[in-house]
């Protein structure tokens, strides 16, 4: 009975894997085919593997530029979110009063507000800042990073807040008695102990920032400033008739994500495991 149930479970897993992997297979295989091969049989392997459609897609997408744009926005967002959110959460935990509790609840409450409800007010505020304060918040990577920090900080503060509660305050008190400043206590004592949750926060921010389309589409208008998701949207809309080039462009888009997951896989598993223990 146990062997039968295990066999059924294995078969179901294989079927689910095939369902999830089949679109990726179709995308990659058809990116190497000629149009005649693609329309003849979309599931068959190509007669020859040529990179000409990848080269055309890279050129028309301006791939290296948009890849650099996405990397800059993602790294900038992650660095500022980790630094600001960890310090904020630490101060909220160690400052035990009504104000800190209210601020923490305010951070949590923002997680419940859909982004779509804030789109128009956000753009109006950013335009007001640009017009009256002469700070370029729209159509700049800096403005996009600034807005990303605001939207990602709430979940990051929530995660750090729960983790910092498990950090013994005695270590901080000992460092203070030894003459360490408040800033030094955080960076020398507290932050190194937050490695596990920092990895988790960084991974979540990388995924959400890299895959984000909606906010960059609102903020960035110049073609040279587009992120990879934004560029893919315009490219795919332009070349949906030329399916082999469109598939090549989509394949190029997922390559950085696959590389990231391959590198970060062990850290993702470790972060989940240690976070569960905490």
UniProtKB/TrEMBL annotation:
What PROSITE patterns is this protein classified in? ABC_TM1
Q: Which residues form the ABC transmembrane type-1 domain?
A: 67-264
Instruction: Provide the alphabetized UniProt keywords.
Output: Cell membrane, Membrane, Transmembrane, Transmembrane helix, Transport
> Topology versus the membrane, per the UniProt entry?
Multi-pass membrane protein
Q: Which Pfam families match?
A: BPD_transp_1
The entry's localization annotation reads: Cell membrane
Domain of life here?
Bacteria
- GO terms for cellular component: plasma membrane
Keyword presence, Transmembrane helix = yes
List the CDD domains hit by this protein, alphabetically: TM_PBP2
Main localisation: membrane
Transmembrane parts of this sequence = 7-28, 71-93, 102-123, 143-164, 185-207, 241-263
State whether keyword Nucleus applies. no
A single BP term in Gene Ontology: transmembrane transport
Q: Which PANTHER family match?
A: ABC TRANSPORTER PERMEASE PROTEIN MG189-RELATED, ABC TRANSPORTER PERMEASE PROTEIN MG189-RELATED-RELATED
Q: Which family does it belong to?
A: Belongs to the binding-protein-dependent transport system permease family.
User: What is the official name of this protein in its record?
Assistant: Sugar ABC transporter permease
Native organism is Paenibacillus azoreducens
Taxon lineage: Bacteria, Bacillati, Bacillota, Bacilli, Bacillales
